[in-house]
Amino acid sequence: MNLYVTGVSWVAGVALVAGTLAYLVRRIGATEGVVENNEAAGQVFTLVGGLQAVLLAFVLISLFDGASAAEDGSYREADSLVAAVWAVDALPSGSSEIASEARAYAREVVTQEWPRMRDGRPVDDTGWTTLARLRKAVADAPAPDEWTVNRKTEAATRLWQVYQARQDRINAAGEGVNSVVWFAMVVGAVMAVALPLLFGGPKPATHIFIVSILAGTMTMLLFATQQLQNPYGGGAQVSPAAFESALDHLG
């Protein structure tokens, strides 16, 4: 199902349930003293709603920044891989093996690792093994003069950057939102929606509309959190375009 259709379905469904509950409370619940309780209930709602808003804002901003960092990191990893190959391109021998290992690494990331990260599955050690062979090929390449030694040093530096960016990528794919934070967000959302049910007033339709809008908003923010917690899947969907471009450059 389309992401936006799924999101609208969740928002509309929860808003309808909350509106129905508000209607039933106004229809069959006790109404005596409800209006007088508005001030006290409003003060509690301000505290609960404010804390919930701060928590959701903090989590969403962190996840959004994480998705942006994941995309930047994929380009940093792929660019460093290409730069390592180009650095040793003029060596007397060994450069063809290095280029071959670099292409194997990029293909492994695109065809094997990215689908696993998208589905939230762990990444195996094949990529690490390929990267280790690539590092060894750079280390074993002959360097008869100072200029080629500098080229090898540059390639080794770039490969270290690949290693760091790869580690960050794998960590980002497995982090997500902590279960304790999820518990706090969901319970806080339920409490924030439940409190307005205690409010009263002369116009039930307005009360029902307010509760429905609040429930829909909370659901929308929780749905956005769920979609952004894995930067390589869901609504974020950071693509392996950087490595596909690297394969084009590596030939």
Percentage of residues assigned to helices:
over 70%
Rg over CA atoms, rounded to whole Å, is: 27 Å
Terminal-residue CA separation: 37 Å
DSSP summary: helix tally: 8
Q: Strand pairing plus helix content: what structural class?
A: mainly alpha
* Percent range for β-strand residues: under 5%
What is the element string, with H for helices and E for strands?
Answer: HHHHHHHH
Runs in which pLDDT lies below 50 for 5 or more consecutive residues are none
* C-alpha geometry: rod-shaped
Major sheet details: none
Mean pLDDT: 85
How many runs of DSSP E, i.e. beta strands?
0
Give a description of the structure.
The chain has eight helices and no strands. It is mainly α and 251 residues long. The chain starts with a helix and ends with a helix.
